[in-house]
C-alpha cells in the first residue's frame, strides 16, 4: 500500500471540508460496522441495568460494581455512533470541522464512557483481589456503602477530567478529524487521560493474573472443605464455592475486555511514539487502516458482558428471563 495519504474526497464535500480531513473509501464500511456493533451492545447492557434495579437478589457490592461498569458500556454503545458518524462519513467530517462544540461533545462523551469502563474494571478487579486474597476481611472491607462511595468517585472523576477540554484545554481547529489526538492538547491527552488509564490497566492486569493463579489453586480446596461433616464447614465451603463462581465470571469479563481493547492499545503505542522513518515519511497507510479498524472491535466487550453474566450467574439469568417474560424453573445449584 502507499504510504502517503489517500485523498478521495468527493467534489461536494471537498468544497467545504478541510484538506486534512480526508474521506477514505473504506470509511463507510468502518462506520457501518461501528454503528452495528454499537447497536448490538445496547439491549444486553440495558437489560443488565434493569435487572439490577428490579431484582433484590442482585443487590450486593459486587453487582453494584457490575452495574456501574454496565452503565459505562451502555454509554459507550450510545455515544459510539456519534463518533463514527463524525469521523467516517463525509457529512460528519464537514460538521466536525465546522462546529467545535459538536466535536467536543461527541468526542468527550465517548472518552468519558471509555475511561469509566477502565476505572470500573479496576474496581471490579480490586474487589475480586480482596475476595480471593483476604477472604476473612472481605465482608468488613467491601460493604455496599463503601462501594457506593467508590462508584461515586469513579463517575465524578471521569466527569471532571473529560469536561476540562470544554474550558479551553483543546487544540481543535477546522482542519482535522474529531479525534483525541487532533482535538485534545498533548498534555491533557498523555498525562491526564492516557497515563492514568494505562496505570489502571496495568494494575488491573497484574491483579487478574494473581487472581487467576490463586483461584486455580483454591479450586482444589473448595470441594473437600464443603464435604466435611459439620454444618459450619459445609456453610463455609458453600460460601467459598459461590465466591469462586463469581471470580471465574469476572475473570472472563476482564479477559474479554483486554482481548477487545488490546488491538487499539497496541496500535496506539506506535502512533503516539512513531519510529523516525514514520515521522519523516508519514504513517504507512496499512498501519493507519489497522488502527482505525481496531476501534469498533472495542465494542466486543460491551456486547459480550451480558452474555457472560447470563451463562455464568443463575441470578442474572433468572432476572433476564423474568424481564423478558420467559418462564424458567431454574434454581441456584
UniProtKB/TrEMBL annotation:
Localization (cell): Cell membrane
TM region(s), chain numbering: 26-52, 64-86, 98-126, 147-167, 187-211, 250-273, 293-311
SMART domains associated with the record: 7TM_GPCR_Srsx
Protein name per Swiss-Prot or TrEMBL: G-protein coupled receptors family 1 profile domain-containing protein
Residues covered by the G-protein coupled receptors family 1 profile domain: 44-309
The keyword Magnesium is annotated on this UniProt entry: no
Domain of life: Eukaryota
Organism listed in the record: Capitella teleta
Membrane topology, as annotated: Multi-pass membrane protein
Molecular-function GO terms, alphabetical: G protein-coupled receptor activity
UniProt keywords, alphabetically: Cell membrane, G-protein coupled receptor, Membrane, Receptor, Transducer, Transmembrane, Transmembrane helix
The keyword Cell membrane is assigned to this record: yes
PROSITE patterns the record matches: G_PROTEIN_RECEP_F1_1 (PS00237), G_PROTEIN_RECEP_F1_2 (PS50262)
GO cellular component: plasma membrane
Record-stated family: Belongs to the G-protein coupled receptor 1 family.
Amino acid at each position: 500500500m502507499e504510504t502517503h495519504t489517500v485523498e478521495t474526497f468527493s467534489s461536494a464535500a471537498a468544497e467545504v471540508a478541510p484538506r486534512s480531513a480526508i474521506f477514505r473509501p473504506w470509511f463507510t464500511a468502518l462506520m457501518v460496522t461501528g454503528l452495528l456493533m454499537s447497536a448490538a451492545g445496547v439491549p444486553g447492557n440495558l437489560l443488565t441495568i434493569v435487572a439490577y434495579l428490579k431484582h433484590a437478589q442482585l443487590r450486593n457490592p459486587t453487582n453494584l460494581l457490575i452495574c456501574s461498569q454496565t452503565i459505562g458500556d451502555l454509554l459507550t454503545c450510545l455515544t459510539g455512533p456519534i463518533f463514527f458518524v463524525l469521523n467516517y462519513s463525509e457529512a460528519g467530517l464537514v460538521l466536525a470541522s465546522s462546529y467545535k462544540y459538536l466535536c467536543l461533545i461527541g468526542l468527550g462523551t465517548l472518552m468519558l464512557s471509555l475511561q469509566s469502563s477502565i476505572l470500573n474494571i479496576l474496581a471490579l478487579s480490586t474487589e475480586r483481589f480482596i475476595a480471593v486474597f483476604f477472604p476473612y476481611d472481605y465482608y468488613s472491607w467491601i460493604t455496599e456503602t463503601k462501594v457506593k462511595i467508590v462508584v461515586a468517585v469513579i463517575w465524578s472523576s471521569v466527569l471532571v477530567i473529560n469536561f476540562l477540554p470544554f474550558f479551553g484545554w483543546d487544540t481543535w481547529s477546522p482542519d482535522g478529524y474529531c479525534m483525541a489526538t487532533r482535538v485534545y492538547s498533548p498534555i491533557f491527552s498523555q498525562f491526564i487521560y492516557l497515563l492514568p488509564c494505562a496505570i489502571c490497566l496495568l494494575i488491573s492486569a497484574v491483579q487478574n493474573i494473581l487472581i487467576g493463579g490463586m483461584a486455580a489453586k483454591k479450586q482444589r480446596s473448595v470441594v473437600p472443605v464443603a464435604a466435611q461433616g459439620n454444618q459450619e464447614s459445609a456453610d463455609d465451603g458453600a460460601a467459598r464455592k459461590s465466591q469462586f463462581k463469581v471470580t471465574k465470571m469476572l475473570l472472563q469479563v476482564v479477559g474479554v475486555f483486554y482481548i477487545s481493547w488490546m488491538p487499539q492499545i497496541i496500535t496506539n503505542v506506535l502512533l503516539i511514539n512513531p519510529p523516525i522513518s514514520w515521522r519523516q515519511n508519514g504513517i504507512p497507510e496499512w498501519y493507519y487502516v489497522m488502527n482505525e479498524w481496531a476501534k469498533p472491535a472495542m465494542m466486543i466487550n460491551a456486547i459480550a458482558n451480558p452474555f457472560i453474566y447470563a451463562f455464568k450467574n443463575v441470578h442474572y439469568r433468572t432476572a433476564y428471563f423474568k424481564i423478558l417474560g420467559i418462564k424458567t424453573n431454574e434454581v441456584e445449584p
